[in-house]
Design brief:
fatty acid metabolism (chains A, B); Thiol Ester Dehydrase, Chain A; transit peptide (chains A, B); lipid metabolism (chains A, B); 5 helices; fatty acid biosynthesis (chains A, B); 2 domains
Chain lengths: 250, 250
């Protein structure tokens, strides 16, 4: 892998944490995405440039591993690398490290280029990928799918209306809201007593301002592992799925 | 005024902005509150220390003036000063300036000390205020009240359930959510076509995890000025009121 690496410091702000004084998973992803935006700006591949060409980057999947959630006021190092790409997909890695170099979290993400007029996935434009020095590959990665939500019994549901300020400067519902919707569907006792270790989230369909989404969550205690399975649905469409692994909170 | 001044740089992060690429008012307030938390930590008046004594700081009112909302990626200077206090109230000022010293926004805020066991306002403890070198005054400031929402006609309403991640590390519903609830009750066309210039927000009663709040907003176009009036209510309680002044978006 020869993609250019980029790193930046980030001090965890109080409004990136929840009542446990740890970063929320949505904000963890935001902090990582910030590093990739800052790298892109530094390399001249700004959102404005991409938009000017009639395109936009869209995330289709994140695979997240968390060793320890960063804490309020903690200084962390965020490292990212646009590792490789093929005709349609770009693969990017992220790492969050503590001040003394301990790996706290990592993430592997899949990006596609969306043609804004056709609303269809476009072939990766050389001028938008070359600045990152990523490896071209013929292979399409076969990433694991999030587990499916099967049982309709015992599924916890909550409804949310997409708000004006949920739409970020990229004109998408910001990532953080999908995570918040998914997590908030779990009981507070569960969230207080468990730490998120792994999450596989896959985006299928965009949601828009004013849409009402239903967040559906199932807690699977049958296995030896503690798992949760999640769906975000609008009335007729499955928009986003995820599965998570947890350990008891120390 | 002799309170110690504190200033810090802040670069506007993409997740602090909305689709207009400008900071949301809730995040503007968060960015200012961050400076006061950082000052307090530097002076040893940490949240932990205040909590250890059985107290917590609670905001009762913000008066906000905005000349220009900071934009995505903009570097700003945040300045704060714990200006003065009397037996029960602390008054703090905030300024946000652009890199070349232009004042973008200011805020005057009122804090009280809450006895966590009695859930009542307590007298300001000398050890919690002395580090700031604020002026003691006998005067209680007579700040303007937010305008009252009178008309029941034409009041726009939306309901929100307080989410797990709305509760921040201070165990309160983070400020940003009150602002988001208030703003989101306005139509998107209004938010896109106007800039917020002034806001007077007063907190009356805390809301808690799981509460459903109703955000009520009235757009007053009768006057020469463009005004909005806001309420946040739980079923039986008026929790927060605000009034805003706007100008057409350039």
């Amino acid at each position: 892998m020869s993609g250019k690496k980029y790193s930046e410091e980030h001090k965890i702000l109080f409004y990136e944490t929840d009542c446990t004084r740890r970063v929320t998973v949505g904000m963890l992803v935001n902090i990582m995405m910030l590093a990739s935006q800052d790298q892109s700006n530094e390399l001249g591949v700004t959102v404005k440039k991409v938009k000017g060409l009639g395109f936009g980057w869209v995330i289709t999947q994140h695979l997240i591993d968390i060793k320890r959630m960063p804490r309020i006021y903690e200084k962390v190092n965020v490292i990212t690398e646009a590792a490789s790409y093929n005709r349609y997909f770009c693969y990017r890695d992220f790492w969050i490290k503590s001040e003394n170099g301990e790996e706290l979290a990592k993430m592997h993400s899949v990006f596609v280029l969306m043609d804004q007029n056709k609303r269809k996935i476009a072939r990766i434009l050389p001028e938008l990928i070359e600045p990152y020095s990523s490896d071209y590959t013929n292979k399409i990665e076969r990433l694991p799918e999030p587990e499916k939500l099967i049982s309709d019994e015992q599924v916890k549901t909550k409804k949310y209306q997409v708000r004006f300020m949920d739409i970020d400067s990229n004109q998408h519902v910001n990532n953080v809201h999908y995570f918040d919707w998914m997590m908030d569907a779990l009981p507070s006792e569960f969230l207080l007593e468990h730490s998120l270790k792994k999450m596989n989230i896959k985006y299928k369909q965009e949601v828009h301002y004013g849409d009402t989404v239903e967040s559906r969550a199932y807690i699977d205690l049958n296995d030896q592992e503690i798992k949760t399975v999640h769906q975000i649905k609008t009335e007729h469409t499955l928009c986003c799925t995820a599965s998570c692994e947890w350990i008891p909170q120390k």
